[in-house]
């Protein structure tokens, strides 16, 4: 469901797959080949939310902001199931594991991996290319080539899966 809020209407590229039950409202931009999965809520009713190309936001995630603190997700990012993102910055090629919470002013570095169930507190910076995990999240180690390959596989599969779902819905 796509809803306006005040004078803002979501700007969603026509290649985006928006699953049944997903809600996008307000000042939200979603770029090409991104996928927004079942029962995800993206509310742009406080500050802008910008979602790059080939981003996958998995089932039951929630995205929101605080006043004057936009939410930015760069290209090729994976957001796992039931993630909460609030007024944060997720740099390109990062992966946020299932059930994690990324709070106001936090920044996840390029190609970083935040492990499932982690809490990244307000203002915390996770460096590029590392695995961070815990509540609060702490850097555990540098990512391996195997980690990066698996993250790329996940990104690619979600783009492909979204295109397949979109095609099936368009041809019903």
From TrEMBL:
SUPFAM superfamilies with a match to the protein in the record: Trimeric LpxA-like enzymes
UniProt cross-references to Pfam families, sorted A to Z: Hexapep
Domain of life the protein comes from: Bacteria
Protein name according to UniProt: Carbonic anhydrase/acetyltransferase-like protein (Isoleucine patch superfamily)
Originating species: Shouchella xiaoxiensis
């Amino acid at each position: 469901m796509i809803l306006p809020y005040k004078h803002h209407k979501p700007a969603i590229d026509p290649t985006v797959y928006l699953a049944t039950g997903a809600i996008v409202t307000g000042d939200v931009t979603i770029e090409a080949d991104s996928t927004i999965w079942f029962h995800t809520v993206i509310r742009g009713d406080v500050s802008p939310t910008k979602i790059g190309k080939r981003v996958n936001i998995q089932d039951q995630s929630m995205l929101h902001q605080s006043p004057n603190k936009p939410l930015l997700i760069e290209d090729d990012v994976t957001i796992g199931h039931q993630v909460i993102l609030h007024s944060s910055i997720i740099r390109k090629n990062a992966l946020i594991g299932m059930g994690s919470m990324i709070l106001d002013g936090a920044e996840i570095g390029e190609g970083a991996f935040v492990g499932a169930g982690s809490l990244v507190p307000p203002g915390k910076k996770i460096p590029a290319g590392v695995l961070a995990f815990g509540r609060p999240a702490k850097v555990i180690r540098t990512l391996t080539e195997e980690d990066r390959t698996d993250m790329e596989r996940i990104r690619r599969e979600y783009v492909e899966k979204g295109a397949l779902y979109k095609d099936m819905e368009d041809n019903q």
